[in-house]
Every structure is written in structure tokens, then in C-alpha cells.
């Protein structure tokens, strides 16, 4: 059996990290098994679905490299197929029309709750041998309900939660088509999964309650259900379910904030799955390791500091030339043109950065005007150090422009003036880079342009 998985988001809000993890695992499982990964957009909620939300789904998946093998398919473009299956089910007696009004349903629920019973449809319009149905109300379009089995259990072995059993008597007859004939969520999902040959459904555990209903529809249509794996919720840093309402950011925000896609995949993979104690790994290694047997059962909690640490580790491991390509694009967006020094600059500063945006901030100091922090100027640029700055500027005018020769010029200035290294290095950093906190001053100057360094030291 060839593995076929799917990611089926609803475009009713901007997809966040908790959502995209439900794309990562089916994508990874399909890739690890040589299978097929399908993208399906469940856009039947016309009031809440937006094209902007669809765009974020597509852009986010493209950025993370979670490219589908098939799709995207849109449920709204499959309405004829759903209606055809509904017609078949009507012919076979698997569904029946229900004329109970919303007001009658509400009254029924109130009576059940007053009697401390579980609110559920009571089967008033379900045809049974020897049963007399109520008179048809005039001018009322019925909903269509699925004839759920009576008695017995729905049982499945969930790859995360283990064996789950639900009594059929707990399930009422589900509405699968509205009065205007439009199908409902649980029905569309089953038809789609059958038509697309889905073998494994890997999704959030907020769908567990839908699963027994969907399994019964699969079997009524003569199909065995797929394997299910229901992933625990992703919580935000406050311990609440991650959601837009609770401050979750769209996936594309992380792209724009300077995070690396491979670092995001690494971090998201660990939000509910593990391979021993391995923390940092590449995409290829992840796909070699990934299986459904090591999915966690407990809710995972998002941690921004941990994400930034993972991103920083991936930046350190990334070749300077590859990082420079990303930083060059960021600088170009700011109207700053980078030059051939950029890979070396990235190499010098990447250990200090947790995003490519932070790295671009450093690189910009080498390619554009710098405005030193006034507080640091007052602190470090004193009358006592100005002669040394002038002397160093004079020496740097003519010395070979290498790290070692610049270091030698600094040492000679210190000898001649009697200053200690911090007393000279700090002012030089402030004037050249705008801040006193940089890597080794000789390395920073060697990557700077001679004329710029000399001019800034003289102005100091």
C-alpha cells in the first residue's frame, strides 16, 4: 500500500505554527515512506473563508518547503461530486430527510439538558419499520441526515492516542446536507479522502470527536477508513491553545522576521515528535528518522526563546555564502547595495545573531552611514583618547589592509599613547560601527573600507 497523506486546512484565519505542524507531519511521513502528500483547501465556509488566508497557506508551505505532490484541491470546486455521492446514498437508504426546525431542535436540547441527558437529535424523522413519521410541514426544505448504525461500537487504533472506542448510541444522526443541498464538513471530508485515496490522516486532536462519525460514513460507502493519528494541541507561551485570538502570528511573519525555513522545520518537528535527545538536525536527517511511532501524547508548548536558539544554531551551520544571499536580499529591500565583503561579514557576525534580520542589521553598518549611539559617544569618546584616534587614523592611511597589519597598527598606537586595549578599541568600535559591542576590532576594521574607517576616526 502506497502511503498517501493530506493537509486540509480551512482558510478561515491566517495559518499559524500550530496549524502548520499539522502539515509538517503528513508531509514528512509521505516523504519518509516514498508516498504522496496532498494539499486540500476546505473552503466550504463561504462567510469566513478568504483568499488572503489561502495565500498565507500557500506562501507559508512554499517557504517551508512543504510542497504538495497533488493539489491544491478546493472543496467548493467539488460540489457536483458531493451531490452525486449524496444521491447514491439516498438511493441506498443511507440518508433520510429531516424536517425538524431549528426552534424544535433547540427545544429538544433544552428538555434533554433539563433531564441531565446528553443533547442529541432524537431520530424523530428517521424511518424505521412500523414507525409512523410526523406529517410533512408545508414549505419546509429538509436537511439530510446520515443513518448512523444503532448499537455496537466504533473502534480504531490511533497512532498517537492508542485504542479508542465510541459507542454508536453516543452518536446521533449527523446532518450531511443543508436545506439548500450544500454538504457539511464531515461528509465532504470522507468523500475527499476516498476519492484521493488517503491512507493516513494525521491531524489535530480537535478532530477526534469527528472521527467516529467519519468512520461510519466510510463504511456505509463500502470503504475501509484510513489510519488515524491525532496530534496533541500546540499551546502558546501562556499555556493556552495557540490561536489568532491568543496572539499567534501567521507563518509568513516568521519568514519576514528572518527565520530560516530549515530551522522552522527543525523546531516544529520537535513540537510533538522526538528522536532521542537530538535537538538540531537538518531536513534530510529529519526525513530519515521520522515515523508515527514517536509522536508525543502530551500537548507541546511554543517557546520563542527556544525557536530563536534553534534558528541561531542553523545560522551557525549555514555556509557564509548561502547566508549572504539571504542577507543581500534583506539589504536590497532597505535600499542598501551589498558588495563582495558580505560573505565574510556574515561569517564574522553570524555567531552573534538569532535571525537573518539581525545579521542584516550588522551588515548594513558596513554598507551605509552609521549613527553612533550618543550615550556611547559620551562614554567612550573622551578628550584623553582623541589624540590616539588621530594617530591610529594616520597609521591606517598607509598600512596594508589586513587583519594582522591593522592589529599591529593598534598595538603601536597603544605603545605610543600608553592606553590599554579597551580604552582605544571601544571608541574605535563606536565611531566605525556605531556601538561598542562588536567582535574583535581588527577583524571588524579589516572588513570595513579604509577611507570610511579613517574618516570616522578623524571626525571622532
UniProtKB/TrEMBL annotation:
Record-level GO cellular component terms? cytosol
Per UniProt, where does ATP bind?
Answer: 244
Q: What subcellular compartments does it reside in?
A: Cytoplasm
Show where the Aminoacyl-tRNA synthetase class I anticodon-binding domain sits.
327-459
Per the Swiss-Prot or TrEMBL annotation, the motif 'KMSKS' region is positioned at: 241-245
Q: Which terms under GO biological process does the entry name?
A: glutamyl-tRNA aminoacylation
The catalytic activity, as recorded, is: tRNA(Glu) + L-glutamate + ATP = L-glutamyl-tRNA(Glu) + AMP + diphosphate
Q: Which InterPro entries match?
A: aa-tRNA-synth_I_cd-bd, aa-tRNA-synth_I_codon-bd_sub2, aa-tRNA-synth_I_CS, aa_tRNA-synth_I_cd-bd_sf, Glu-tRNA-ligase_bac/mito, Glu/Gln-tRNA-synth, Glu/Gln-tRNA-synth_Ib_cat-dom, GluQ/Sye
Q: Which UniProt keywords apply?
A: Aminoacyl-tRNA synthetase, ATP-binding, Cytoplasm, Ligase, Nucleotide-binding, Protein biosynthesis
At which positions is motif 'HIGH' region?
9-19
Lineage, top-rank taxon, reads: Bacteria
Pfam families for this protein = Anticodon_2 (PF19269), tRNA-synt_1c (PF00749)
> What residues does the Glutamyl/glutaminyl-tRNA synthetase class Ib catalytic domain cover?
2-309
Q: Write out the similarity annotation.
A: Belongs to the class-I aminoacyl-tRNA synthetase family. Glutamate--tRNA ligase type 1 subfamily.
Say what the protein does.
Catalyzes the attachment of glutamate to tRNA(Glu) in a two-step reaction: glutamate is first activated by ATP to form Glu-AMP and then transferred to the acceptor end of tRNA(Glu).
Outline the subunit composition: Monomer.
Protein name (record)? Glutamate--tRNA ligase
Q: What is the gene name?
A: gltX
Amino acid at each position: 500500500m502506497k502511503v498517501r497523506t493530506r493537509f486540509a486546512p480551512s482558510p478561515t484565519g491566517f495559518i499559524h505554527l500550530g496549524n502548520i505542524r499539522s502539515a509538517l507531519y503528513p508531509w514528512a511521513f509521505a516523504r519518509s515512506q516514498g508516498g504522496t502528500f496532498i494539499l486540500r483547501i476546505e473552503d466550504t465556509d463561504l462567510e469566513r473563508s478568504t483568499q488572503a488566508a489561502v495565500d498565507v497557506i500557500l506562501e507559508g508551505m512554499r517557504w517551508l518547503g512543504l510542497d504538495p505532490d497533488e493539489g491544491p484541491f478546493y472543496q467548493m470546486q467539488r460540489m457536483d461530486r458531493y451531490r452525486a455521492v449524496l444521491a447514491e446514498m439516498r438511493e441506498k437508504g443511507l440518508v433520510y430527510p429531516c424536517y425538524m426546525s431549528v426552534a424544535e431542535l433547540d427545544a429538544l436540547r433544552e428538555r434533554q439538558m433539563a433531564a441531565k441527558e446528553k443533547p442529541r437529535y432524537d431520530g424523530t424523522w428517521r424511518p424505521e419499520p412500523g414507525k409512523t413519521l410526523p406529517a410533512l410541514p408545508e414549505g419546509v426544505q429538509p436537511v439530510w441526515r446520515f443513518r448512523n448504525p444503532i448499537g455496537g461500537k466504533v473502534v480504531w487504533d490511533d497512532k498517537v492516542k492508542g485504542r479508542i472506542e465510541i459507542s454508536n448510541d453516543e452518536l446521533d444522526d449527523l446532518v450531511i446536507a443543508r436545506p439548500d443541498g450544500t454538504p457539511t464538513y464531515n461528509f465532504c471530508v470522507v468523500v475527499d479522502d476516498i476519492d484521493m485515496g488517503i491512507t493516513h490522516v494525521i491531524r489535530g486532536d480537535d478532530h477526534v470527536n469527528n472521527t467516529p462519525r467519519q468512520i461510519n460514513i466510510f463504511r456505509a460507502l463500502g470503504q475501509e477508513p484510513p489510519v488515524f493519528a491525532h496530534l496533541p494541541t500546540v499551546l502558546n507561551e501562556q499555556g493556552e491553545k495557540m490561536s489568532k485570538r491568543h496572539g499567534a502570528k501567521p507563518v509568513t511573519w516568521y519568514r519576514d522576521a528572518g527565520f530560516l525555513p530549515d530551522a522552522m522545520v527543525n523546531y516544529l518537528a520537535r513540537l510533538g515528535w522526538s528522536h532521542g535527545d537530538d535537538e538540531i538536525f537538518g531536513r534530510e536527517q529529519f526525513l530519515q528518522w521520522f515515523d508515527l511511532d514517536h509522536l508525543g501524547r502530551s500537548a507541546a508548548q511554543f517557546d520563542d526563546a527556544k525557536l530563536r536558539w534553534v534558528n541561531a544554531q542553523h545560522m551557525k551551520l549555514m555556509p557564509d555564502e548561502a547566508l549572504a544571499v539571504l542577507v543581500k536580499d534583506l539589504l536590497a529591500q532597505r535600499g542598501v547595495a551589498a558588495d563582495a565583503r558580505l560573505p565574510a561579514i556574515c561569517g564574522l557576525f553570524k555567531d552573534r545573531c538569532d535571525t537573518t534580520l539581525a545579521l542584516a542589521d550588522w551588515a548594513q553598518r558596513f554598507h551605509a552611514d552609521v549613527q553612533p549611539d550618543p550615550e556611547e559617544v559620551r562614554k567612550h569618546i573622551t578628550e584623553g583618547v582623541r589624540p590616539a584616534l588621530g594617530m591610529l587614523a594616520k597609521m591606517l592611511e598607509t598600512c596594508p589592509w589586513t587583519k594582522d597589519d591593522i592589529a599591529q597598527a593598534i598595538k603601536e598606537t597603544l605603545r605610543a599613547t600608553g592606553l590599554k586595549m579597551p580604552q582605544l578599541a571601544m571608541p574605535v568600535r563606536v565611531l566605525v560601527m556605531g556601538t561598542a559591542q562588536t567582535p574583535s576590532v581588527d577583524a571588524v576594521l579589516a572588513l570595513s573600507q579604509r577611507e570610511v574607517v579613517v574618516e570616522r576616526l578623524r571626525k571622532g
